[in-house]
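Office hours follow-up: a student asked to see two folded examples consecutively, so here they are.
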Amino acid sequence: MVRLLPGALGDDESSRDESFSPGLPDLEYPQYTRPAEFRGMKVPDVLVSGNHAEIEKWRREQAKLRTKKRRPDLLK
């Protein structure tokens, strides 16, 4: 809740696409960090492609898939 208070984040846009943001009933997309491969798990190529439109598309798709799998009640 604190993240929603004005000034709590350095950039107000930081919370615009979080879980349960207005207009977004989906859970968040998977998050990745470095290294690009860890214990046989790889960061999806699209995320290191530099193509911001494709990255955003991938994030939306993953959020919907994750929501459908984990919280189908949110899709009703």
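And the second, which I mentioned at the end of office hours:
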Amino acid sequence: MRSTLTVTISAIALVAASPSFAGTVKYYADYDPIPMAAMQEIIADFEAANPEIKVEFQNFDHEGYKTAIRNFLSADPPDLANWYAGNRMAPFVNSGQFMDVSDVWEANGLKDSLASALPSMTIDGKQWGIPYTYYQWGIYYNKTVYDQVGAKVPETYDEFVANCALFKEAGIDCVTTGTKALWPGAGIFDYMNLRTNGYDFHMDLANGKIPWTDDRVRATFAEWAKLVDPGYITANHAALDWQDAASLLVQGKAANYVMGNFSVAVFKEGGMTDETLGFLPFPTINPDVLRAEDAPTDTIHIPTGAKNPEDAKVFLAYMAGPDAQTKINAAIEQLPINKDATVNEADPFIKAGFELLSTTPGGIAQFFDRDAPAEMAKIGMEGFQQFMIQPDQLDAILDRLEKARQRIYK
């Protein structure tokens, strides 16, 4: 692991060409207790390496922060503020409330070291913050039931669907999910669309630029139908919370679950181990499409009204470095974005996720309910749930989503 000194020198190099403005940096955030403690250690390390800069840190609860950030960005902005990548940051970028920090990226080689998150941090060819943590989505599977039916871990979607026939014959759900809260179904849609049409198309759809009645959207649902029509997905998913579906995987009543890495703790609490629980990337559907992944990404930004943006940029460069990203992600059991950071090699799921996301060539999506506006996300997720129950209603579902698109994106 690189030394703190290396990262600090890189950060200092960023501002060497401009007059130094040493002083206080105000930082507003919304951490839970564990990441907050890790961030306080990082701030102490930063201040020790940069004694001319003091970081004043103020933490908000998650829900309160969503309202507070809209107020303080307009009234009395801090020098640093937590938020999220992709379309979640777009409103603040478009309203001129987040500062362009492309110079931080250029001076510190971040387009290389943070390459996997570059598309989700870029709007109009510029970078608007620093990503410091994300976690992978993919397919978690029960190794025991794979062995039971003689299924091999698939690399392509056709192989995955072929396995589903083996599981169904054995009375096992090939894919489980719990869509009572709607969002788990969005994870399946994201991967179906990312693997069928690619990242740029997926983001254009989330941005309202593509009709839901487009033939390429229908192609996504045609691939999804290969699981829905034969009854390969847990039948009563609309009545299940995501943890209920996790229990089906634990019990061997289901083989696969499209879910985020936070689910591993639930699987293990149910009795699964590294020997019985496996992880695989969502398989290739269209080989001509670059692999993209869902990986919700947390970020730090400099508000346009910051009083000390020069020193705030020094801190951003520090947080982009491998040492700081290693420290905070070790605490929260998520993944650093800097490819030179280190992860817990003893945790196969953390290790697999780091390798998966660090080598993603096609882009990082933020999950449907972050990438699309809130109203569109809700209507879309209701449609995804309905499709898995009533696939014969696809035309009506897509017509409804298209009418919503035309209204919401005016």
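Two things to take away from it. The longest helix spans residues 33-49. Residues 1-21 have pLDDT under 50 and may be disordered.
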